[in-house]
Amino acid sequence: MNVEIWLALLGTAVLISLSPGAGAATAMSAGLTYGIRGSGWTTCGLMAGYAIQILIVSVGLGSLIATSPELFKVIKWVGVSYLVWLGLQFWRQRQSADIESQTAAPGPMRFWQAMLINITNPKGIVFLVALIPQFIDPLHPQQAQLLLISATLLVIDMCVMTGYSGLAATLRHRFVDPAAVLWQQRLTGSALILAAMALSLAAL
Description:
Layout: H1 3-18, H2 22-38, H3 40-58, H4 61-67, H5 69-92, H6 96-103, H7 107-119, H8 122-131, H9 142-170, H10 178-200
C-alpha cells in the first residue's frame, strides 16, 4: 500500500471514529462515570468488538451478512434490543445506591458490555465490507494489506474513543452532586436508546 492510499485510509478512519453512535456514547459515559483510567475497560471492550467485526469481514463472513437480509435483521434486532436494555438500565438507576453500584461495576463486566455493543451492530460489518476493498491493491498480497488496514482502523478508533472518554472525564467534577449524576445517567440512557433507534432504521 502506497503512502497516498494509506493517508486516504487514515482520514477515512478518523471520520468513521468521530461519527456519533453507540460506541461514542458508551465511551463518554465511561469517562463520566469512571474517569479516564477507569474507562480503559470500556475502551478495550469497544476495540475487541471492533476487531471481531474486522476479522469477520476479513475472512469473508461479512459478505454473507451483506447479502443475507434475514441474518442482517436477526443481528440488527439483537443489537437494538441490547442497546435499549442498557439504556433502560441507566434510566432505572434513580437511587444513590444504584449509582454507587454502577460506579463500582467490575471492569470485566464493563469490557463485555462494551464489546457486545460493537459486535451487535451489523451495519458496522456491512460498512466495513464496502470500505475495506477500496484500499486493497489486488496486484499485491492481501494479507499484509488487511493487517495494515485493520491496525489503522483499530488504532485510530482507540485514540478517538480514549479522547471521548478523556473529554467526558474532564467534566466529571460537575457531576458530583447526586442530582447531576442522575441526569448524567439519564442522558447516557437516552443516548443509547437513540442509538438503538438509529440502528433499527438500518437496512441493506
